[in-house]
Amino acid sequence: MQCPCCQTSDLKRTRLDQHLAVHTCETCEGQWVSSYDYWHWLEWQPSSGNIKQCDALDISDRVSDNRRASFCPECNHLMRRAKVGHGLKFYLDRCSHCGGSWFDRGEWEILQAHNIHDKVHLVFSEPWQSQIRQAEFNRVLEETYRSALGDEDYAQALRIRAWLEQHPHRDYILSVLNQVPPSEDESRYIPVPRPLPQNDAPKEEVNYRPVASSQDKQLA
What we know:
elongated
């Protein structure tokens, strides 16, 4: 097999772990893990637990992310790219046909540090990618609020929100802030004036005076 990045160097059989056999490119130091080898290793691998946040790692110096489209070294199908997320900005490459995965230099070590190396098959799932999109949306939204309010006012707004979420009359307070009528559940806390029925409302007296016709005016 040839390296999908270099496209000239042959991949050599090595091991990343006691139960994980891979094919490594000596030129770019990338690693190819077949679907069979990955699932075989996963059967022997104990769960790594929750994902870790390792912000202190200098990822830019340890990862060489290939952003070009690559073809599977086993079946020659176009490989799909998926963002890892959870603080990691690089992408993983996986063949949708045979299920093998390609790791650029340093990617596997970073995944191990974050406890994601045994969750590679989940990275390409829709729930994982949906979570990444939601996290990115929240990050952009927070930056927008901070830019508009400033750090101090934004922190104050967060404290108010936390207080409001725990308040027993949260809906009523929101009604006051938004100047809208309270909901039925909150209306029992204040007297609500009820309009009188239309039949019981006092009627205004009207005096009717006859209007003289033109003939009556002539006789007068």
